[in-house]
Amino acid sequence: KMRTLLSFVFSQLVIIILINFYYYGKYHAIIKLVWRRNEMKFAGDEYWEDWERDILEEQEVVDEKGKPFISKVRVANGTVTPFDQHPEAESLLNTASRLIPAIDFLISEDISALSYNPGGHYAVHYDYLEYEEESDDEFMNEFGNKMATFIMIFQKATSGGGTLFPSFGTVVRADAGDAFLWFDSKENGEMDMNVEHGGCPVYEGQKVISTIWICIMSDFSRT
């Protein structure tokens, strides 16, 4: 009887272990995802929806009047450099002009250099600026809104850091040495609603890019 009892207990233990293995395998992916989301908290994460995460030093941005302020909508290290003050910036401008001769890069905002460390991101937004009141942005008032955005990749993050385009359901994961461009405005100068985009959170490594924003006036400067 003792041997029969031990055999019964052993068989029940085997069944319990097998059931545990089954459910562990079934829910392991879910548990791992929940753990990853809990671990990957970052400053400004309240601006990201769950679906954006799944396809997925603070810096100044501008408010509705064109005034600069610090916002956690974008978390990055960055600097802005005039093209005519540094040969490296001028070289980037010349390279962009050579790559896309159909676009006049001469009338554009100062080149923006950005690095995103782990936790760095840029919530979904438009580069085209819309102000509720008359803008104090003298440069935009003189040269017009953003016509196009040109991004050059110098270093790709090990994990995360892609550029999300929700309207197209895609994330661009460009390699170091790549560049890509999109138009922020339509031919009539109005904002293109399809090019809302965001910089996905960097989980590992560092993402380093430079951005040139070409102004609408540059398109008319040749006419």
UniProtKB/TrEMBL annotation:
PROSITE patterns named in the record: FE2OG_OXY
UniProt-listed Pfam families: 2OG-FeII_Oxy_3
Alphabetical keyword list: Dioxygenase, Iron, Membrane, Metal-binding, Oxidoreductase, Transmembrane, Transmembrane helix, Vitamin C
Origin: domain of life: Eukaryota
Gene Ontology CC: endoplasmic reticulum
GO MF annotation terms: iron ion binding; L-ascorbic acid binding; procollagen-proline 4-dioxygenase activity
Residues of the Fe2OG dioxygenase domain: 107-216
Cofactor(s) needed by this chain: L-ascorbate
Name of the protein this chain belongs to: Fe2OG dioxygenase domain-containing protein
Species the sequence originates in: Caenorhabditis latens
